[in-house]
Design a protein that fits this description.
Blueprint (H helix, E strand, L loop, with lengths): L6 E6 L4 H14 L7 E6 L23 H17 L18 H13 L1 H16 L8 H10 L4 H8 L2 H16 L7 E4 L2 E4 L4 H9 L2
Parallel strand pairs: 1-2
Antiparallel strand pairs: 1-3, 3-4
Helix pairs in contact: 1-8, 3-4, 3-6, 5-6
Length: 211
């Protein structure tokens, strides 16, 4: 067992399958430690370039991701599901159509600030709601249910999601991530060093411990 303490920064977006798998990898690495690393979560909007002035996703915008790209994604996800013991994870085609993660990230951003000790459980519950239960995390009613199930006040989360000031601050976080050189997720950062993608636990160990 190792004894390193500290925290690891993780940039993620709930609609990214590799972020769910990255969480599973991080959980596996945490199990080898005497003390958990604290997770410094940083939100990221994978589809920021497809959002119109109203903040809605314009699915007609060409982002260069063709069917061949998604075929490769599906193959990589299927491989990692087996490697990370995540066979409960839904296939991409089984998800609700065109889920937007923005509201979920607003809710998570709020909980992370106001109830940091409860944030990780809420974060995991959002991932599981989408990737295991196939619930639409872009639906505020679903987020309220997740909050209630996580021991948080659902009505408070509903109010937070509608808060324009909070939504603006979240957009600032997205912009700051890109200014920091983050171009994809998940991205893990520890002590100035980074690793991108759903990397295996062994690579996270090397990132943190320099092995």
């Amino acid at each position: 067992m190792v004894e390193n303490s500290g925290h690891i920064t993780m940039y993620s977006d709930y609609v990214c399958p590799f972020c769910y798998l990255g969480h599973r990898s991080l959980e596996s690495y945490q199990e080898t430690r005497d003390r958990d690393l604290e997770i410094d979560w940083q939100p990221f909007d994978l589809r920021s370039q497809k959002r119109g002035p109203d903040g809605e996703i314009d699915h007609s915008v060409d982002d260069g991701k063709d069917e061949a790209y998604f075929d490769q994604v599906r193959q990589n996800v299927a491989r990692l599901k087996g490697e990370y013991d995540a066979n409960e994870m839904l296939d991409l085609g089984d998800l609700p159509e065109r889920v937007d993660s923005f509201e979920a990230q607003v809710a998570s951003f709020y909980v992370n600030e106001e109830y940091p000790e409860q944030w990780l459980a809420f974060d995991e519950a959002i991932f599981e709601a989408l990737w295991i239960d196939g619930r639409d995390i872009g639906d505020v009613d679903v987020l309220v249910d997740i909050a209630d199930e996580s021991g948080l006040a659902g009505d408070e989360i509903r109010t937070a999601v509608a808060d324009e000031q909070l939504r603006g601050r979240l957009r600032d976080q997205f912009a700051e991530a890109r200014q920091n050189g983050v171009t994809g997720v998940p991205t893990f950062v520890y002590d100035g060093h980074g690793a991108r993608g759903a990397v295996p636990p062994e690579q996270l160990e090397r990132l943190v411990e320099g092995a």
